[in-house]
């Protein structure tokens, strides 16, 4: 009798938990929908004026008190040592998630292997589009998947392949190199402050490719690699998925003219805030300029994807980024500003280059989606004061903040960063091709990343991302095959991990080893050489 009573109480408690979860899910969806509709009605009721870069669907993601209480309850850290191997972390890399002559050897001392040039990559003419356009996501709701995250870790939720883009995260990381010319410019100047300007611009440009990229790259399999050689841009790159718990991607790039080394390891921490997903960057990025015996380190800003329940998905990046020159003590402290209630600071980056005694040497400002400028600190601060005064006067003429008019959208091709007189342009984003919207909002550089030529066979290793059948199927427009292959690869990786636990064999990384960063002693993954010798007979069969 007592056992039956206890069992009934457990069933009743379980039923109550299910009902609570259902009620919370419905309440959150209703709250988000009403919030979105209210903002749209406010937007439509106001007369347009001049500066905002947001559309009606984009229109801000202000947090109300009720939202804070729900989002606080739903806050979730994504990384888990209990995660099943190969399981797809939702939107993991929405933010994880970017000319010189060829030398006979790289800076690592690795040279040609046999008759095959070490720089060979088999692509003579780069493509201008993908084999098939992207699939429509209109019939699939992200919310229908992510509502399962209530009370769970994000790493436990597998996302349908329809939300992916046909690139691995290792390939996505390579987009850091799109504006490599900034590194070459840094090497060309003898002034350390001018070099810092170039390096700071490179750090900002490295995240510019994320603009409008709402598709998530495929999570790399453990042991997956990716290489890219660009003679025209003067670099070669290799990356490896070195850990699965937590997921860590390590990369190493070097100038073909032995003029720089760029390396790092990336692993973001995700949080689900009810209406948005936030990726807090973890890991360290390092740029070395041997000509000046200088090393620069920094970390990326936080990336956030908004409107995952209702409305148009949009991305912002915010937080502080500090680029440090470990030789001179100079640093560039930049703030990626959050959007704010009416979007007036969307995409804005501001900061200063400081000497080792923290004296301001110059100001730096712009938008991470467009351009970056430098100007004298006094001029910058005077401009900011004038701006603030004008804004205060404008607010004083309003009856209340509710009556404040949203700024009008600028023409699509117009530069929206306000240029201060006397400024110097140090970086401007490369325009995306006209067909970008059809192909996952890819830049021209991104279009090239998964190119595969017949002549690559026997040259690139069997672990290269170009050889992944799920990514190749998606790029070719076969969504069913892509989904089936993705599941097969995940299951194969789980079985491989299970088999390793039954034996004394441990997984060993091939091209990177964990150790302290040589410049600030932080934990890092460093290139252990050997990749460009082109001896891949010992690699595992992961596909």
From TrEMBL:
Region named Disordered: 387-416, 493-515
A biological process term (GO) from this entry: lipid transport
Transmembrane segments: none
Keyword Transport: yes
Comp. bias (Basic and acidic residues): 387-396
Keyword Transport: yes
Gene Ontology molecular function, alphabetical: cholesterol binding
Family listed: Belongs to the OSBP family.
InterPro entries referenced in this protein's UniProt entry, alphabetically: OSBP_sf (IPR037239), Oxysterol-bd (IPR000648), Oxysterol-bd_CS (IPR018494)
Gene3D superfamilies assigned: 2.40.160.120, 3.30.70.3490
Name of the protein described by the UniProt record: Oxysterol-binding protein
Gene Ontology cellular component annotations, sorted alphabetically: cytosol; perinuclear endoplasmic reticulum; plasma membrane
Record key words, sorted: Lipid transport, Lipid-binding, Transport
């Amino acid at each position: 009798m007592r056992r039956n009573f206890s069992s009934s109480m457990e069933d009743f408690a379980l039923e109550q938990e299910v009902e609570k979860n259902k009620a919370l899910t419905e309440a959150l969806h209703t709250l988000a929908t009403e919030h979105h509709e209210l903002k749209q009605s406010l937007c439509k009721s106001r007369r347009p004026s001049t500066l905002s870069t947001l559309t009606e669907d984009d229109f801000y993601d202000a947090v109300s008190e009720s939202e804070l209480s729900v989002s606080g309850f739903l806050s979730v850290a994504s990384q888990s040592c209990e995660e099943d191997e190969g399981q797809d972390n939702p939107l993991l890399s929405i933010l994880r998630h970017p000319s010189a002559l060829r030398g006979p050897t790289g800076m690592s001392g690795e040279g040609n292997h046999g008759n095959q040039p070490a720089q060979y990559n088999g692509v003579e003419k780069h493509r201008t589009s993908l084999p098939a356009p992207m699939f429509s996501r209109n019939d699939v709701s992200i919310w229908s998947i992510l509502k399962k995250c209530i009370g769970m870790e994000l790493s436990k939720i597998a996302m349908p392949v329809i939300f992916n883009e046909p690139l691995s995260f290792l390939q996505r990381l390579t987009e850091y190199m799109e504006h490599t010319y900034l590194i070459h410019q840094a090497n060309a100047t003898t002034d350390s402050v001018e070099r810092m300007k170039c390096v700071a611009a490179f750090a900002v440009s490295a995240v510019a490719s994320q603009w409008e990229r709402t598709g998530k790259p495929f999570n790399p399999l453990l042991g997956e690699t990716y290489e890219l050689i660009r003679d025209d841009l003067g670099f070669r790159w290799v990356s490896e998925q070195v850990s699965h718990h937590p997921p860590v991607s390590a990369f190493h790039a070097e100038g073909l003219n032995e003029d720089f080394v760029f390396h790092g390891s990336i692993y973001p921490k995700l949080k689900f805030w009810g209406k948005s997903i936030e990726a807090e960057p973890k890991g360290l990025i390092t740029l070395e300029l041997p000509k000046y015996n200088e090393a620069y380190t920094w970390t990326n800003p936080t990336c956030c994807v908004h409107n995952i329940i209702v409305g148009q998905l949009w991305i912002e990046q915010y937080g502080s980024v500090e680029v440090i020159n470990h030789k001179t003590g100079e640093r560039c402290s930049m703030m990626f500003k959050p959007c704010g209630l009416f979007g007036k600071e969307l995409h804005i980056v501001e900061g200063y280059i400081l000497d080792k005694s923290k004296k301001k040497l110059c100001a730096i400002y712009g938008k991470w989606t467009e351009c970056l400028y430098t100007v004298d600190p006094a001029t910058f601060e005077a401009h900011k004061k004038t701006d603030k005064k004008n804004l205060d006067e404008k607010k004083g003429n309003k009856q209340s903040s509710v009556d404040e008019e949203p700024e009008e959208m600028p023409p699509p091709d117009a530069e929206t960063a306000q240029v201060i007189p006397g400024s110097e342009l140090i970086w401007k984003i490369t325009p995306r091709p006209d067909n970008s919207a059809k192909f996952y909002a890819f830049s021209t550089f991104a279009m090239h990343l998964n190119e595969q030529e017949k002549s690559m066979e026997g040259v690139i290793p069997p672990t290269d991302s170009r050889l992944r059948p799920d990514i190749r199927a998606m790029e070719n427009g076969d969504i069913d095959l892509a989904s089936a292959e993705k599941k097969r690869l995940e299951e194969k990786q789980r079985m491989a991990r299970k088999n390793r636990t039954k034996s004394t064999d441990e997984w060993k990384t091939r091209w990177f080893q964990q150790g302290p960063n040589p410049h600030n002693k932080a934990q890092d993954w460093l290139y252990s050489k050997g990749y460009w010798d082109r001896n891949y007979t010992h690699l595992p069969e992961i596909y």
